[in-house]
Amino acid sequence: MTHKWLLIVVLTVPAVSVIAVDRTPLRYIPFRCRSGISVSLTFRCDGFAHCPDGSDEDGCVAASVVQRPPEMVKVRVGEWMNLTCQGAGVPPPTVRWKMNGNELLDPVCDWITEDGTGHLSCRMRLIDTGNYSCHLAHPLGMVDVQPVTMAVVEGNPCPKGEFLAGEEHAETCIKCFCSGVSELCHKFELFRWNYTMAMNDWKMGFATWDGHGPVETVKSIKEFSANRTLYYSLPYRFIEHQVKSYGGYLRIPLASDALDEIPDVILMGYNRTIVYKKNPTNTVFNRTLQIKLQESSFIHQNGSSLDRTDFLTVFAYIDRFLIRMRPTNGRFEPSEQSIVMDSASDYQRGIGHAGHIEQCRCPVGFRGTSCERCDFGYNRAFIGPPMGLCMPWEWHRKRYVPKSTTPRTYHYV
């Protein structure tokens, strides 16, 4: 006779207090009607009866404020700011947060809303000073909680509109550039890296310029006269948005150490032309011209000095980057050596920290470390600051499209 034994093991698990947050999107959470069927919770109190008996529209109560965040918060750089906002209503409202009237999209902040209570946590930087507001989203109407919270980030030793830049033990206050649309900036922790290209690379362009008129592209230099002025025209990787190159170096190979062989370096952007200010002190090293990419190394085309704003306005979008060529034996021959230009990124490249790159708090419609680029859905209009403003497509359509043109026949790109 065979006997089978059943072993039952009972495990005792100690109770642990766990805060569980339901992350299920509302559209997948059901609401049970009195008649027994279920509809999406998003239909609750939306003004339309989705239940056959209309029970999804019964007992609705508009949102009201239960707890407001404080009127002012002072936080030091690097510390966390925690705000709580609570509302009541049927169904419970969703708590949303804004900074200076704009939706919070910055990754340094985290927020959560559950049963009408919202929490906001931000690791504060200098550029995070501003007004933080709580908003209760409800099907019966949005409630803007007043007053808003004024967050002040302390720890900036520089005056308003400046930031502490430079390397350790050699830091100084520098005025925020921010394309002229913001005064909130701080030093961006980036690392140096560089672009490298041979001067005879097939992507290298060539151009001629008389110093006043437009720059003319030269397709072939084989028959180009040595009596005329010819320039290397640097390609895409050296032009356009280059504000992250500020404080780095441009290295140009030379045929000899003679100072009279130093070429003209010309940059054009935003209707400005700046040229390298030839300085015989520490400019040539191992037959390489090394130019510090900052305002002290360049002058305006008319010879006048330029400031940081003028310099970065050109580097915000470089249209033309020209380096003068010199003929060899009566003809132009591109050099086989390489040109090197520094830039910066958040990826470690082993060249060291970039201590002079700013990160700005940009208004709506702008993006980039210095607000130098227009956000998606915005185009640049040359009004206001020297670089213009980023305006939404609707603004351009109303300004430039004839009233006789109907939306049915007009397509805006």
Please describe what this structure looks like:
This protein has about 425 residues and is mainly beta. It has helices at about 310-315, 395-400, and strands at about 30, 40, 60-65, 70-75, 80-90, 95-100, 100-105, 110-115, 115-125, 130-135, 145, 150-155, 160-165, 170-175, 185, 190-200, 205-210, 215, 230-235, 250-255, 265-270, 270-275, 290, 300, 320-325, 340-345, 355, 360, 365, 375, 380, 390. It is elongated. It starts with about 30 loop residues before the first strand and ends in a 13-residue tail after the last helix. Residues about 1-20 and about 405-413 have low confidence and may be disordered.
Keywords:
mainly beta, 7-stranded antiparallel beta sheet, 2 helices, disordered N terminus, disordered C terminus
Strand composition percent: 35-45%
Q: CA-to-CA gap between the ends?
A: 87 Å
Structural classification: mainly beta
What's the overall average pLDDT, rounded? 85
Number of strands: 32
Number of helices: 2
Radius of gyration: 31 Å
Helical fraction equals under 10%
Question: So what's the overall shape?
Answer: elongated
Strands in their spatial order, largest beta sheet = 18-17-19-25-21-22-24
The largest pleated sheet is described as: 7 strands, antiparallel
Task: Provide the fold topology.
Elements: E1 30-32, E2 38-40, E3 61-67, E4 72-76, E5 80-90, E6 94-99, E7 102-103, E8 109-114, E9 117-123, E10 130-137, E11 143-144, E12 149-154, E13 162-167, E14 170-175, E15 185-187, E16 190-198, E17 205-208, E18 216-217, E19 231-233, E20 249-253, E21 265-269, E22 272-276, E23 288-292, E24 298-300, H1 308-316, E25 320-324, E26 338-345, E27 353-354, E28 358-360, E29 366-367, E30 373-374, E31 378-381, E32 389-392, H2 393-400
Parallel strand pairs: 4-12
Antiparallel strand pairs: 1-2, 3-5, 5-9, 6-7, 6-10, 8-9, 10-11, 10-12, 13-14, 15-28, 16-26, 16-27, 17-18, 17-19, 19-25, 20-23, 20-26, 21-22, 21-25, 22-24, 29-30, 31-32
